[in-house]
Specification:
133 residues; seven-stranded antiparallel sheet; 1 helix; 3% helix
Length: 133
């Protein structure tokens, strides 16, 4: 993994007064990892953040602090409200819109690599030989 120890964030301007701030905490740098990236996303109060799903990746969004309204484009479209410590699983290629509540929202996003890539990875089994233990 490539770990980011910097406190710098990327700012994404979404039309509101305050930008959405994204900080990459770790990015896949090794062939043996199904984890593509770990990002921290800070949404200012009432900010909208549109997530465009990819055909080759799934994501798990953990709400560090909320509340947060989630609208998905699945069939049928869904809307739900999440709060602190809730988990949102974003299926492959599903577009999702997040809207922060009046206090804003903090999220942690874990994006996993596509099955097409992970199928080609070598088996990852622990070495339990005496030489290694």
């Amino acid at each position: 993994m490539i770990i980011n120890a910097s406190h710098r964030t990327a700012a994404l301007h979404t039309g509101g007064q305050d930008p959405v701030r994204i900080r990459c905490l770790a990015r896949r740098g090794m062939l043996h990892s199904e984890c593509e990236a770990v990002d921290r996303v800070s949404l200012p109060p009432h900010a909208h953040y549109d997530l465009v799903g990819r055909d080759d990746a799934e994501a798990a969004w953990y709400v560090l602090s909320g509340p947060l309204t989630v609208r998905g484009t699945g069939t049928p479209p869904t809307t739900s409200v999440l709060g602190d410590r809730d988990l949102l699983l974003a299926p492959i290629a599903q577009d999702i819109t997040l809207r922060a509540g009046p206090r804003g929202a903090e999220l942690l996003c874990l994006t996993v690599t596509s099955a097409a890539v992970t199928r080609r990875l070598p088996p990852r089994t622990p070495d339990t030989t005496k030489e290694r233990t």
